[in-house]
Amino acid sequence: MLNRRRLAPAAAPYLSHVDSPRWQDPPTHSVLVQGWMAIPPQSDLDEFRAIKRKKLERVEPLLRCPRPAPGATGEDCHGELRRVDDTTLECTRCGTRYGRTNERFDLLPSDLATQSGIEHTENISAWGYDPIATQVIQAHTDGLVLDAGSGFKQTIFEHVVDAEIVGYPSTDVLSVGEHLPFADGAFDAALSLNVLEHVRDPFRCAAELARVVRPGGTLYASAPFLQPYHGYPHHYYNMTASGLQNLFDDAFEVEQLTAPASAVPIWALSWFLNSYVAGLPGDVGERFRKLTVEDLMAPADDLLDEDYVTELRASTNIELACGCILVGTRKAG
User: Fold this and answer.
1) Are 34 and 155 contained in the same domain?
2) What does 56-78 look like in DSSP terms, one character per residue?
């Protein structure tokens, strides 16, 4: 069964999700699922391939080498890429070669993936476009929109470039956010939705997004604040509204800074309580469920010896921690 919701004339639905009891169509927040199935009618598959082909042809001249430049400059090579053959692109500056197929460009060499902390995972990151993202996409149908860290999309657009670390069927460019493989000012808009918490260097990612969006272009970024740990497989940084603004303030005039309906506090409270109960032994969990809000508003010091505190699973203590500590010994050299 296909999602036939068309969000714009150039949208092509082509996939079905499986094995996700939490799936909503379309969801407005990130959902991790365990598998996908491509079972489209031939007409939808032909449309999907046609859009992919047209999009990749349009994107190819904008690709640049993402490999870090020699020395300690912190800059990337950014050499133009030339077509060697149907399966290979080569940097005209440093000579690095990258893969190309009819489905995507592979600009994520293994050493760059390792440097960025990318690991294989069976999790699939998937979410739909909320009203703001949809508005950005529809406002730039004559240009190009980058979806940086797009996840697995059920719907594709001719003018939306899906950049991802995983080769989902919807992925157009395999790449990492800290080293975006595109020319300066290549895009009219960029989306970074529920991604920045999963990268090792959100400051570098923010700078890269600013680099590839043209002057006057649009950025729509979202990131969690009071969300529990949700590794994909890693989850590094949550951020306040001020923290999110700090990432982009130098490069963008901030027009909105708020919590949308998909991120108001009740989401955090519901997620927290459900995870907390799941982290308790069955009988303790049942007793915890019967507590009142007033019970839980007691001073935390008064609750530390309760079984619903002492018997909470260790992994849940990390997932929902109020804070974490680190003690280390300085390495030699």
Assistant:
1) yes
2) HHHHGGGBB--SBPSSSS--B--
Contact between 263 and 29 under an 8 Å Cβ cutoff? The reply is yes
Q: In this predicted structure, what is the pLDDT of residue 118?
A: 86
Name the strand (E) or helix (H) holding 294: helix 293-296
Establish if 324 belongs to a structural domain.
no
Structural domain boundaries, residue 81: 12-260
Does residue 325 lie in a domain region? no
- Count of beta carbons in the 10 Å neighbourhood of residue 11: 20
Judge whether 79 lies within some domain.
yes
Percent of the chain with pLDDT over 70: 87
* Best CA proximity match to 153, nearest among 188, 194, 124, 196: 124
Cα angle at 144 between 236 and 111, to 5 degrees? 40
**pTM of the predicted structure, to 2 decimals:** 0.87
Q: Does residue 285 sit in the same domain as residue 211?
A: no
Q: Report how far Cα 26 is from the mean position of its chain's Cα atoms.
A: 16
